[in-house]
Amino acid sequence: MNSLQKLPKAVLWDMDGTLVDTEPMWISGEHQLAEDHGVVWTEEDSLHLVGSDLLVAARYIKQRIGGDMTPEEIVDWLGGRVASALREKQEWRPGARELVEELRAAGVPQALVTMSYAYIAEPVVEALGFDAVVTGDSVTQGKPHPEPYLTAAEMLGVRAADCIAIEDSRTGAASANAAGCFVVAVPHAVTVPEAPFRAVVKSLDGVNLADLARLAGLGHAHQ
């Protein structure tokens, strides 16, 4: 890293689709629920929910499938499946784990900011370790509201405007940008549009701390 570049005050990580490839787990659960209720679940339905607050997603599912399950029961059923799968195996997204380890070695604080609930995120938190963890069941307003990212920055004792957020969905990127973070978007299941204070990259494979700082313009125009 050259002397012009400064370290971000913190890096705030989304989980699903950014750190670990859980989207197929969520999607297969949605298909199973729909099938159990005699309803066809489409790819469009699944993509519509990527990055959403779990209860918001469950209300959408309830609307689509009908039946007797409450949104809370839908979250419990889907979340239980994903948590079990994650305990068995974590499919890391390319470059993500390596970047987490490099940031830790450099002393950059990191937070996990996920709409998954604490019991779902637990295996990932145990595997990687974070300085702060914000989960969907610990905030009042989920993504795309800025509260999750503002909460993470506050827990780390930094301003959100001094943080870099790493996200894979437009919902998550909108949440982080609304909080004032610079966003590095790594689209996975859905596209993420270009926007101010946002850099869209194809993959984190080979992306290091110096690349992150450069993307965020640290030491240059964006302070």
TrEMBL record:
Transmembrane segments: none annotated. It comes from the Bacteria. Gene3D superfamilies: HAD superfamily/HAD-like, Putative phosphatase, domain 2. Pfam families: Hydrolase. NCBIfam families: HAD-SF-IA-v3. PANTHER family: 2-DEOXYGLUCOSE-6-PHOSPHATE PHOSPHATASE 2, PSEUDOURIDINE-5'-PHOSPHATASE. This is Phosphoglycolate phosphatase. The lineage of its organism: Bacteria, Bacillati, Actinomycetota, Actinomycetes, Propionibacteriales.
